[in-house]
Input
Amino acid sequence: MCGIVGYIGNKNVYPVLINGLKKLEYRGYDSAGIALCNNGIHVYKQKGKVSDLEAFIADKEINGNIGIGHTRWATHGEPNDINAHPHSSMNNKFSLVHNGIVENYADLKNDLIKKGFTFLSDTDTEVLANLIEYFYEQDEEVTAEYAVRLALSRVVGAYGIVVISHDEQNKLIAARKGSPLVIGIGKGEYYVASDAGPIVEFTEHVVYLNDYDIAIIEKDSFTLRNIENNPVSVKIQQLNLEIGELDKGEFEHFMLKEIFEQPKTIADTFRGRLRPGQHDIVLGGLIDVLPQIVNAERIIIIGCGTSWHAALIGEYLIEEYARIPVEVEYASEFRYRNPILSEKDVVIAISQSGETADTIAALNMAKEKGALLLGICNVVGSTISRETRAGVYTHAGIEIGVASTKAFSAQVTVLTMLALKIAWEKNTISEDLYSTLIKELSAIPENARTILMNHPHIKEVAEKYKNAVNALYLGRGYLFPVALEGALKLKEISYIHAEGYAAGEMKHGPIALIDDNLPVIVVAPQDNYYEKIVSNIQEVKARKGNIIAVITEGDKRLREMVEDVLEIPKSHPAVAPLLAVIPLQLLAYHIAILRGCNVDQPRNLAKSVTVE
Ligand code: AGP
Output
């Protein structure tokens, strides 16, 4: 995934572009660049972060009121100066920035080479720039917009692009198919960006582009057409983002800020939906389809990465309380299988960004098979939230750290409410237990704050394990997915190889890994699996494994058995994941910091994988 920004108006465009790119850098950060219109097109781009680009430009005379910018997560072509965006066409008639993937770029490139075009980079984006120029040069009647439309009609794949034209320097042309683009509407000025981050400080009125939309944007007007050149109605929406969400505040990293935001996040997620003392859980986005959900023969939850881990917790909750069979599928697998689906099935796509390519593709496949499609997303107006029949927003606020933390907690909170809601409607849960679980869920923000107060201790534990080469995470029941999530956090920000495993599975292989060099993190609160997991801990101890245990506050027995403990308040097992995950997030964060890793922008990763 990459970050795109564009501006047209009366301001000096450079600060708008460079500051906009800084707000989008979490989407991709291996190279960056800008292009401006000012008696021609001027391009400045290079490998490295946005701050490196800023330093590169510092001594240059930069003027203009129209421009585009890009921060990259490489798909085609390694990160270097040449492959950085913006890309210009061979005769510099066009310059563009692109988020997505042109799957048929090789055929298009060969065809253009035969037509005499030359290329400087290895990217699919440069092919698109030359294709636009090719159509533009066919006839002097062809406008820049028409050339863009003709070129895009040849593209197979996903794109979110903003184009500037040498011959029509008074406009931006923006188009999307599969990669998000949002237009900010100012007074005599317009902003374009991959998400609302760069826009929110200037305007709260936005238009989200849909697939095949093409926007022609001038200083005092913009028109929306589709790829067949038919007018598209403009739907202006109000942003619900606060500018303060876009900075780190007193925290050193976005990831740490977002870990500490979790008490508030969980409270925001259930605010207005869960009312202690009242039985009704209100999930407004599902009201129209609740009967279909309650009577579903099966629920299939599709997602990737952390969202898939949240889905697994959802499976355990819905099956235990609502008694509906649930299957959890990796979207990247589900999309290519030929699964047996029917209109009696409910398919839930769970995604923080709402833009993950695999999840969108799996959803589209399910749509063809007639299933009811629901979305659990964090980003309002995201593709998945708009492609599904109904859904629930997680209200976690913008999550900038690439490693998902508060969004995971918000997803689990929604899934917990959903399981209880369905169980209540199906009468598969007693009133006592229902009330207990609502009370337990309502107490999570306070209990989470208690854990966060233990932050200095977790930092000390991290010091002991910062040089680990491998790590094994174990959990049972609801805490097995938490073990998976803890392992993912460690590996994606500290680059230590970490595996999450069902603790009961350890004797079927992973126990061979145990020795005095292997930290074993066991999620072991006092729940119905406690005695079993204590046995697992004894098996690890017998082989000299170093054990870090997430334990219930006051558990003296485990405290004496293991090397290090991370305590969480006692809670009902069904809501324990929301507590147990927090010390694992902090452990991964501190180990990564001690290893000098960039926790907000880990190598090779992007916040949302909008390409395959
Ligand atoms: C989680 O920390 C990772 N950033 C990654 O696994 C992420 O959860 C996955 O790419 C899914 O993203 P989504 O929730 O936006 O669909």
About this structure: Residues 304-307, 351-353, 356, 359, 402-404, 492, 608-609 surround 2-deoxy-2-amino glucitol-6-phosphate (CB under 6 Å). The CA atoms of residues 456 and 586 lie 10 Å apart. The mean pLDDT is 94. Residues 406-426 form the longest helix (21 residues).
